[in-house]
Amino acid sequence: xxxxxxxxxxxxxxxRLLGTAVRIFYAEGIHAVGIDRIIEEAQVTRATLYRxxxxxxxxxLAYLEQADQGIRAQLTAAxxxxxxxxxxxxxxxxxxxxxxxSEGFRGCAFLNAAAEYPDPAHPIHQAVLAHRQWxxxxxxxxxxxxxxxxxxxxxxxxxxxxxxxxxxxxxxDPGMITETFMEGVExxxxxxxxxxxxx
Length: 199
What we know:
By secondary structure, this protein is mostly helical.
């Protein structure tokens, strides 16, 4: 049984802390936001924060885990109604494009975190790499169903297009960026189909 606290319950306080961290870390950057700011905006005590998280690093890891779960769920939902392998790839592309066009878009949470934690051995950088490996594996598996040529290069191409669109989408017109991104996705699909036909 969870212990109750004056902040409204153990799970409620943790959710409020994490929700606050997610919002501010994404909008303003991780290093720019201190623990005191999160405590103040989440309306909890310092003791409550440390009851749920050992420190800022663990809170950042929870933020990235929530982002990872959200993206996994988003891509699963996007593929759900797609009937053909090509359409599954397009659905993933459209889900990414929708995110770029959404209000408050500030780029990729994982690329942003990697820029702030460049040491490859750091746990936060490791969490970024784990997410990116999952994403690469996911799109490569989808592209392997389109054509018969090895799908590794196409998967890496897709990820590179996505990274570029994520970076550019918060710097210039997101409509133009996502249109260009989707044209790139179609180009990958055409190349896969052409390689299959040629074989």
